[in-house]
Amino acid sequence: xxxxxxxxxxxxxxxxxxxLKSPRSSKGGKVNNTTRQRFQEExxxxxxxxxxQVTGIVPVLDADPNDPPQWxxxxxxxKLRAVLSPGGRPADLREVVEAIHQVAGTxxxxxxxxxxxxxxxxxxxxxxxGRPAVADFGIAAWPERPELTAATQKxxxxxxxxxxxxxxxxxxxxxxxxxxxxxxSLFVLAKDLKFPPEGTHYIQGGEYSLWAQGGEAxxxxxxxxxxxxxxxxxxxxxxxxxxxxxxxxxxxHPGPVAPAHPAIRRGFRALEAATVDVRRHEEELRRLxxxxxxxxxxxQHGESDRWLPSALAERHPEGVRLIDLHGYPDDPDYDMGVDxxxxxxxxxxxxxxxxxxxxFLMGTTTTLAAEIQQAGKVLASWDEDVNVLxxxxxxxxxxxxxxxxxxxxxxx
Length: 412
Hints:
Its EC number is 2.7.11.1. By secondary structure, this protein is α+β, with helices and mostly antiparallel strands.
């Protein structure tokens, strides 16, 4: 018998090797009551799942006949990562998806039994008897079992657990969290990472891209990953739906999935992802402008409604345009080369002067721009490059608005 503390490698008299698990002790060498209760519940429940012949779990070969049990034995298995990336070679995306699809099938069956694992991560995904198998149900939620974790205690693997598991509500089901953690596991196995990036895997986010692993096929997978890691549990795929979406992807891509060079990301789906990101920035710019337009109208006319809200609904509103180049000399009409634009204007004053405020996008960089115009000429102009999704963008927009209002007040 060899190993460490609560997990030891053992060999039966018939030569069969296994892994013996017992309650984990604390630093002082003692096992606290919560840990002991969790282990005993795990031992009993895993024996029941083994008797029920549930596939896709690491079964129980033997167990302490006493009640409560103090140990149980599982077969030796290898890490799923080692099978998908033998010798450290890059994993094949399709093989990873196929493996995670099988794990999702197992977890969907367990969810139907009111069981959530709550500790899904690559280290707990093994390979046994020719297929992926889920291991370590030490903090699983079982039906008709008192919750052994305080509401203020984080639940699950640090880099893989879902947002709601940071401070789980008593009695809240763990099935949505299992979906989140399994999607994160798919990502790190496909990219050969130790930890996943944080947060929802937005389609347009470069840090969440599997393009290099699967090219256009990876773009088909991106919406599944985004929905599987939705922030709100109610917006997330169920485990059964996650399993079915992965099955659909496998059906769409029955053959080997070709990796793609990250520097030549191309195709309509890749373009669509980039377009979604730009659209998100453009919409945020449109959201920020009305408050500042009302301030400028108040400064110019004494009435906050003397501006053109309808102009914000159009990319090139009739009669409203920027005249200065604002650092963009290639297209003075702001037409062909600009990825997005939002502009509005105050009503002209008695002298024909008006204030144009807005911005244009090159990729996800927004150039905020403002001009005081009169008779087709610029009396004064301002511009600043920002990331419109960050708080600093609103600070910059307010500062430009203040400067424009001050400059207008000084006009004769």
